[in-house]
Write a structure and sequence with these properties.
Blueprint: E1 6-10, H1 14-24, E2 29-34, H2 37-47, E3 51-54, H3 63-72, E4 78-83, H4 88-96, E5 101-104, H5 109-120, E6 125-126, H6 132-138, H7 154-164, H8 169-176, H9 180-194, H10 199-208
Helix pairs in contact: 2-3, 7-9, 7-10, 8-9
Length: 214
């Protein structure tokens, strides 16, 4: 009997994780579940999954950033995003950071199973729920973007997410093993880079770009 493909689940909603387990366990070996982006990185290294089913809006480190880190670590796992975000910006960014598949959470359950099999065969998958205009935009050459979080460094993106989640400078410093002065410097640099002046504006920016969820 052939071994089942190994799948790591990543979503911060426990009920959804339980539903995914019930849906996938017959055809796949579910090796673990992560509820934030940092847990994804640790679990991927420890469990060596074939596929990571990843949400975009997750606490501490969002799915896009987690996928970017996985690619930098040369993880062999295929990445499939399962998310509520249908905007072309998120789809394009997902594939730019190494995704093999992109589905919406309102997709039919059999579509998810089929998508996982597709990417395991080395193909790419985009849900039919994504409009043709979005798919066509994926084929366009990447142009210059304005005020995109991708312009920021990896550290700045980390700080931006934690600021937007409402954490204090001291809490961020502890989480990232930095001094509060360094965190304050990064926050100011982010605001200068994005042309923003207040923490509220930073938070709105992070929500608008899917870095944190509402």
């Amino acid at each position: 009997m052939m071994n089942k493909p190994r799948v790591l689940l990543a979503d911060d909603h426990t009920i959804l994780l339980e539903g995914l387990r019930g849906l996938l366990e017959e055809e796949f070996e579910l090796v673990g579940a992560a509820e934030n982006g940092r847990e994804v990185l640790t679990a991927a290294e420890q469990l060596d999954p074939d596929v990571i089913l990843l949400d975009i809006s997750m606490p501490e480190l969002n799915g896009i950033e987690a996928a970017r880190r996985l690619r930098e670590k040369e993880s062999r796992a295929k990445i499939v995003f399962l998310t509520m975000h249908s905007d072309s910006r998120f789809v394009k960014e997902a594939f730019r950071v190494g995704a093999s598949g992109y589905l919406l959470k309102r997709a039919a359950s059999d579509e998810l199973v089929n998508a996982l099999h597709e990417v395991l065969e080395g193909r790419f998958y985009v849900t039919p729920l994504i409009t043709k205009d979005v798919v066509h935009s994926l084929l366009e050459p990447a142009g210059l973007t304005t005020q995109q979080s991708g312009q920021l460094t990896a550290r700045q993106r980390e700080v931006l997410q934690l600021v937007a989640e409402g954490k204090s400078l001291k809490e961020i410093a502890t989480a990232l093993d930095l001094s509060t002065k360094t965190v304050e410097y990064h926050k100011r640099s982010i605001m200068d880079e994005l042309g923003l002046r207040t923490t509220a504006e930073l938070t709105r920016y992070a929500i608008r770009h899917g870095i944190v969820a509402l």
